[in-house]
Amino acid sequence: MSKNSANGEENRSLPGRFRSRFEGPNTIGESRGFWVGFAVAVAALVVYPAFGDGSQLSLFMVLALLGLSLSVVWGYSGVLSFGQVVFFGIGAYTFGVVSINYATPGGITAAVVAGIVGGGLSAAILGYFMFYGGVRDVYVTIITLVSTIVMHTFMAQTAGSEWAIGEAALGGFNGMPDIPVLTLGVEGASYQFMYNPFPMRVIGIGSFEISPFYYLVLLLLVGTYLGLRVLVNSDYGRVMVAVREDEDRTEMFGYNVTRVKFVVFTLGGALAGLSGVLYAARNVYIDPTVFSLLFATLPVIWVSIGGRKSLLGAVVATLAIEYLRISMAGELALVLLGTLLLVTILVLPSGFVPWLHDQIVETRLSPGEASGADAPDAPSEVSD
Amino acid sequence: MVNGINLALQFLDSFAFIVLAAAGLAIIFGIMGVINLAHGEFILIGAYTATLAVTQLGLPLVVAMLVGGLVTGLFGILTERVIISGAWPNYISQQTLGRDIIEPLYDRLADSMVATFGLSLILTQGARIRFGNSIDQIATPFGAISYGAFSYSTYRIVLAGVSIGLLLATYYLFTRTDFGMRARATIQDKETAQAMGVNTDRMYMLTFGFGSALAGLTGALFAPVITMQPTLGDQFLVEAFVAVVVGGPSVVLGTALSGGVLGAILATFSNLYGTFIGRIALLVAALIALRFLPDGITGFIEQLRKRRQESD
Fold first, then answer.
1. Which residues from chain B sit within 8 angstroms of residue A244, using beta carbons?
2. Which of A42, B17, B72, B146 is the most buried if burial means most Cβ atoms within 10 Å?
3. Interface pTM (ipTM) of the complex?
4. Which of B11, B267, B48, B286 is nearest to B164 (CA)?
5. Please, are residues A78 and A382 in contact by the beta-carbon 8 Å criterion?
6. Number of A:B CB contacts under 8 A?
């Protein structure tokens, strides 16, 4: 690729080749400086619970997975889904129902899998009907929006005793309490992640307690981010971006556009399902507000402000906006959030993180490292 | 037992609700390619203005309703100038920075949805901060008619009449007046319309204002029968969306037809199984309609007409 020759890195060492899988025109940040910064950021997240509220940050990281799922679907494949919370919520409810009915370590592990499959399967069903039915563009957005409202209306009325699956009562607006704490593994070889802090002693600093759930979420978030970087920079990722830029042209080149959208939508649903499972596991509770219009819009806000064509933007913006939203508990919080959203869309349509990246790359001295900016800018290339 | 007259009245009620909720949204979407997610909050502005005009200023109800529509229309024009077209911010930035800072949201559907959602958050929360969680309500006028065991609010029947009147007026405006001709020219081909001397920029502004005024009028008309709270727009948004996408590209005809079809479904299912099932049936019908008629009812009619012309 031109990127490699520009960097003069054809003869890369093994770690260099390994790193190149994470890099490409579809993600930002490929310099050594970026990866050092990335490692520093992850290290900061690792030690954060010693200084701040790790329990709250674990919630933001769970939501960042939801933001990533929308970034892949909308930012990389051009399908604006207002229904990521549908798959998020279905994942959460599936996890709740299965784990309440089979409250053994093995059963709860199976419930995690069921939640992810539930999210992916519901996305596959909805996606099949939409994409193979020829629904396109804004109508996809509206169908997903309507699906969210259907789920909200439906789950809100499941209050009666007839709305129970096995032992798990869906509970209508009151939600589903008493979800068992997250435990992975099978009988005898299992580990419980919630409310099970293990003490750590660091020489010179002192001892503190560490929440295993926090580290589980951190591991999943970093792993998902890196995994998605590999995906969007692979050949398949290039096709996804081609679909985003011009569906008809991609179709003419012989790609099955419908299938690409279907597969990516399903993948996004499964990822949203995972996020929902972790959300329900963290709160040991789930209720229909996850299907509400405000909650449905939050992923769109995170991804828009962070930069929809940037996985990093989705993660950073989710953490930052959720932190702002929670810490500004006052009445003006939503007004400020709305203003931020409005101003970002109008003034920085490509999002905050890519804009910041451009500023850094432009001011950087070494031209050899500026390959990020040289990466083909698809919109300017395909405009007719 | 399904009572015929009761069902008919319920149908009229559903029809009026769907058509009035959708009209403003449909016009803005159909003509400008902008999805206004703040539509519900425009309805809120109309409802609050009309209610406050009655309770605070003591205006007669009809005048207050017109004021509600007018204020919302002006607010719509302001929104269009500042956010949708960015004309005013861009004018200021041209003077100070020498370049535009805002790219107009026309035909940027996703961005227009996100931006107007931001506006919707601001307006809902702003109404809550300014007026609290509810304001005093005006009484429902006209009383009720009774028929056997049933009684029905006269005002709701009046609303059905008004919604049909508004549809006819909109149809007249867009098909029989100069403004309508220019507006339709702008939808069909913006560049050609410009070449023919249509000020398309102004058309957009006026259309957005007109759509907003319809939304405000809807809010004002429903003000006596819905609870005055900052989230009242939400209950209109869904029906409006569904009606617009089921209706398809032809604004007035599409809204009328989808109002008829969806109103019938809503009324029948609500009557038989309760309002909750009615709402679910409406949403499911919309999902099915979109699956099989991706261009809505009027798109389907258009297709049929083309096919017949080709076979002739």
1. none
2. B72
3. 0.78
4. B11
5. no
6. 111
| pLDDT tens-digit readout, A339-375 | 888 888 888 878 888 888 888 877 765 554 444 444 4
Please give the residue of chain A at the shortest CA–CA distance from B278: A153
Closest residue of B to A339, CA-based? B118
| Nearest CA-CA partner of B297 in B253, B246, B256, B263 | B246
* Largest Cα span, chain B: 72
C-alpha–C-alpha distance, residues B293 and B253, integer Å? 16
A152, A86 Cβ separation under 8 angstroms: no
Instruction: Tell if the CB–CB gap between B122 and A342 is shorter than 8 Å.
Output: yes
DSSP-assigned states of every residue in A173-227: GG-B--PPPPEEEETTEEEE-SS--EEEEETTTEEEEE-HHHHHHHHHHHHHHHH
Average pLDDT, chain A: 82
DSSP code at position B137: P
Structure tokens at B276: 């909750």
Q: Identify the H or E element spanning B213.
A: helix B200-222
Whose CA is closest to B108, among B34, B198, B195, B8?
B34
Number of helices and strands in chain A (H, E): 17, 6
Amino acid type, B217:
L
The residue whose two tokens read 């009615």 is B278
pLDDT tens figures, B11-41: 888 888 888 888 888 888 877 878 888 999 9
A154: nearest CB among B238, B280, B294: B280
Query: DSSP character for A31?
Result: S
Contact B255, B247 (CB under 8 A): yes
A292 secondary structure, DSSP code: S
pTM of the full predicted structure? 0.83
Inter-residue contact A92 to A280 (CB < 8 Å) = yes
Residue A265 is predicted with a pLDDT of: 96
Q: Which of A125, A142, A301 to mutate to test the interface with B (most CBs of B within 10 A)?
A: A142
At A91 the pLDDT is 94
pLDDT, tens digit (0-9, with 9 covering 90-100), for A157-168: 777 777 778 777
* Closest A-chain CA to B275: A153
Rounded to whole angstroms, how far apart are CA atoms B2 and A373?
Answer: 68
Q: How confident is the model at residue B1 (pLDDT cuts 50, 70, 90)?
A: very low
Contact assessment for residue B248 and residue B298, using Cβ atoms and an 8 Å cutoff = yes
The two three-digit tokens of residue A329, written as one number: 């508990």
B148 token code pair = 């056997």
Tokens in use for A227? 């995994």
The β-bridge partners of A83 are none
**Is pLDDT at A153 greater than 60 in this prediction?**
yes
Selected residue of B25, B29, B114 to mutate for chain A interface (largest A Cβ count, 10 A): B114
∠ CA A340-A344-A349, rounded to 5°: 165
- Please write the tens of the pLDDT for every residue from A183-236: 887 777 777 777 777 776 767 667 777 788 898 999 999 999 999 999 999 999
Residue A176: phi, psi to the nearest 5? -115, 100
Contact assessment for residue A168 and residue A100, using Cβ atoms and an 8 Å cutoff: yes
- What tokens appear for A72 in the block? 């892949």
